[in-house]
Amino acid sequence: MSLSISFDDGYKTVYDNTLPLMQNFGFKGTVFVCTERVGVEDFDGEPTMNLDQLRELESLGWEIGSHGKNHGVLTSLPYGKRELEISESKEFLQRHGFRVSSFAHPYGVSDEATRKIVSKYYRCARSAFEEQGPYILKGTDFDPHRIPALYFASFHFLKRVKRMNGWLTIVFHSISERAPTRRRDNWISLQRFTDFLNNARNAGLESFTFVDAFDKIRETEVVTKLSAITSMRESLIARIWYAIDKISNLCWVDLCKKCMHAIMTIKTGANGGARK
Ligand SMILES: [Zn+2]
């Protein structure tokens, strides 16, 4: 069904090289930026995008999400400092006019306490390859603040995503002709990236930003399924709840595993947010 392509750390090669290629394919990506590394000359040996470049991406339908302030491993920070990384990075982006819904855990690392904080501020959050799969998501039976992602996928794997009618997230970093002097593991060549885009298109996958794919999979599961199995009134109520959820981030809407009717969970304070 869908593919989300995200780019971590906000490297300028995304603006220079990736954007034109993605445009050619009609694909829209998500960039997860570290807010204290926006518009700098040297982040792991490479320049990063500035605010104007990020704004241009957003105006073209891309999503800008938070990757924390400083790319620290959140689980090793004291609780208070951890919350500041999570909340202040969102505030920074909002202050500069971005619509912020998603978070990517630095190094893909998180624990329950961290995800609880993240869920107070963000609709969804991405981990990385370090997570156990499954990488092809279906339905809503996954932690919205621990969504796994792969660093690459073959044509064969992309076809499987299509066949399963699922959602797959891929993470890239820097994409350029020349490998950087540092962190080669952060890099792939333009040719390899173009091949990937070709494969995604030939596999018949649609590209969505991370939050759009997240919303789509939940809405499809909760609303469409409900329409098929319950009364019009039930599905109308679910649609209203879902709209509140999407606009306000105040509640979760899900299907009850037993009766298959919609259930709404109101998020409350520091302990709220996580799906029951
Ligand atoms: Zn990163």
What characteristics describe this protein?
276 residues; alpha/beta; TIM Barrel; 2 domains; two-stranded parallel sheet; globular; binds zinc ion
At the first level of CATH, what is the class of the largest domain?
A: Alpha Beta
H/E order of the elements?
A: EHEHEHEHEHEEEHEHHEE
Strand content: 15-25%
So what's the overall shape? globular
Number of separate domains: 2
| N→C terminal distance | 26 Å
Q: What do we call the CATH homologous superfamily of the largest domain?
A: Glycoside hydrolase/deacetylase
Radius of gyration: 19 Å
Strand count, sense and barrel status of the largest sheet are: 5 strands, parallel
Care to count the β-strands? Answer: 11
CATH architecture of the largest domain: Alpha-Beta Barrel
**Helix percentage:** 25-40%
Helix-strand makeup class: alpha/beta
Number of helices: 8
CATH topology of the largest domain: TIM Barrel
Gist of the model:
This protein is of the alpha/beta class and 276 residues long.
Characterization of the model:
With 276 residues, this protein is α/β, with parallel strands linked by helices. The protein folds into 2 domains: 208 residues, TIM Barrel (Alpha-Beta Barrel), CATH 3.20.20.370; 53 residues. The chain is 40% helix and 16% strand. The protein contains 8 helices and 11 strands. The strands form 4 sheets. Strands 1, 2, 3, 6 and 9 form a 5-stranded parallel sheet that branches. The chain has a two-stranded parallel ribbon with strand order 4-5. The chain has a two-stranded parallel ribbon with strand order 7-8. Strand 2, helix 2 and strand 3 form a beta-alpha-beta unit. The longest helix has 20 residues. It starts with a strand and ends in a 10-residue tail after the last strand. The C terminus is likely disordered. The site of zinc ion has 5 residues, from loops. Zinc ion binds next to loops.
